[in-house]
UniProtKB/TrEMBL annotation:
Pfam families: cobW
UniProt similarity note: Belongs to the SIMIBI class G3E GTPase family. HypB/HupM subfamily.
The protein, known as: Hydrogenase nickel incorporation protein HypB
InterPro entries: CobW/HypB/UreG_nucleotide-bd, Hyd_mat_HypB, P-loop_NTPase
Signal sequence, renumbered to the chain: none
Domain CobW/HypB/UreG nucleotide-binding: 33-194
Annotated keywords: GTP-binding, Hydrolase, Metal-binding, Nickel, Nucleotide-binding, Zinc
Tree of life domain: Bacteria
């Protein structure tokens, strides 16, 4: 068992080295990485499409890389925004790693790109442990997933710089208790901002973009308590 733990720590340590190098290289060219994590079906692809379109309307140079185990469906959807998009198929791997991201960006990322949104594999377990060189880590949950989601996935929510609630247009229909959700988020990540959004009504659209641009401009980013005690994550 100890050897398994040691191996995992070694893998994460190597990933951290790649992530730090990638963060520095992208910062030097003025690019900020936003890592989006969620369960399958959270609505993050639809939200990201709208954020990319908003960025294009504002004249902000953005790009997106989307990861899935199979199909290029999400890349096709995101490309409708007009932003440069690349699909990454992980061949069964349940998360992206910084080394993989480096390989896919090499020779592809357009100049200039102010923001690079990375849509991670739909999974709140494995991706939570891997730094991708991001400056902003965003965890999304839809109103249909239950108010206790942050307690079930404390690492994912506990290391987030921003939490986004999606599909708020149906919150009443599914009896979503916003107060309970916020309390549960605060339990694992005190002080993190919770942003309410709806791709259908437009609620909150553009705010994620605002937060990402601010982070890229050097504005203070929320520092999760859990990150301070996590040996494998840099906030």
């Amino acid at each position: 068992m100890c050897r398994v733990v040691d191996l995992q720590q070694a893998v994460l340590a190597r990933n951290d080295e790649h992530a730090d190098r990638l963060r520095a290289e992208l910062a030097a060219r003025g690019t900020t990485v936003v890592n989006l994590l969620s369960s399958p079906g959270s609505g993050k692809t639809e939200l990201l499409e709208l954020e990319l379109a908003t960025a294009r309307q504002r004249g902000v140079p953005v790009a997106a890389l989307t990861a899935d185990l199979a199909t290029e469906n999400d890349a096709v959807r995101l490309a409708r925004s007009g932003a440069p998009v690349k699909q990454v198929l992980t061949d069964g791997l349940c998360h992206l790693e910084a080394r993989m991201l480096c390989g896919h960006l090499d020779g592809w990322l357009p100049e200039p790109t102010r923001l690079l949104f990375v849509e991670n594999v739909g999974n709140l377990v494995c991706p939570a442990s891997y730094d991708l060189g991001e400056s902003l880590r965003v965890v999304l949950a839809s109103v249909t997933e239950g108010e206790d989601k942050p307690l079930k996935y404390p690492t994912a929510f506990g290391l987030a710089h921003l939490v986004v609630v999606t599909k708020t247009d149906i919150a009443r229909a599914v009896d979503f208790d916003e107060g309970a959700f916020r309390a549960n988020v605060a339990q694992v990540n005190p002080g993190v901002e919770v942003l309410l959004t709806s791709a259908r009504t437009g609620q909150g659209i553009g705010t994620l973009l605002d937060r990402a641009l601010a982070a890229g401009d050097g504005a203070p980013v929320h520092r999760p308590v859990m990150a301070a005690s996590s040996a494998h994550h840099h906030s």
